[in-house]
Amino acid sequence: MPPPDPVIPAEEWRFVQIAPGTKTRIAAISALLDTIIVRLAKTNLPAEEQVLSEIERAQLIAILETALQILKAPIMEPGMLKKAQDSLKRLASKTAEKQAETGLGSAASEGARQLWELIKSLF
Fold first, then answer.
1. Structural domain includes residue 3
2. What is the 3-state secondary structure (H, E, C) of 82-113?
3. Contact 72/64 with Cβ under 8 angstroms?
4. Distance (Å, whole) CA 91 – CA 95
């Protein structure tokens, strides 16, 4: 049975004043999220060794792709960025728990940390 559809309530859309250094941080986070998406989409492990099911991977990819679009916009929605950050933390935790896909787990952990730092600095 597939997991329930994720519900990601929006808090509010906010115009964001982006300082010069923040653009660099957003670019670095975007590159990291892109890397994570590619790793999620192109795993070569057998299904029983993967940390996430196919549906969970698809859902996480959709959440991260949404976060990437939000990071490019002049207005941002902190709730959706927090959901992406939380999803990355859960992925990092699952990889550590199962001791599998450790490179993906490390990238997810770093992505969660960087997203949280960005959220704190913008909102």
1. no
2. HHHHHHHHHHHHHHHHHCCCHHHHHHHHHHHH
3. no
4. 6
Residue 61 lies in domain: 20-122
How many domains are contained in the chain? 1
Summarize pLDDT for 9-31 with one digit per residue, the tens: 677 888 888 888 898 999 999 99
Which residues face 15 on adjacent strands? Answer: 75
Which one-letter amino acid corresponds to residue 12? E
Any domain includes 13: no
CA distance linking residue 94 with residue 34, whole number of Å: 20
Whether pLDDT at 43 is above 70: yes
Given a cut of 90, whether residue 34 has pLDDT beyond it is yes
Q: What is d(CA 30, CA 35) in angstroms, rounded to the nearest whole number? A: 9
Domain of 74, CATH number, reads 1.20.1270
Residue 46 within any structural domain of the chain: yes
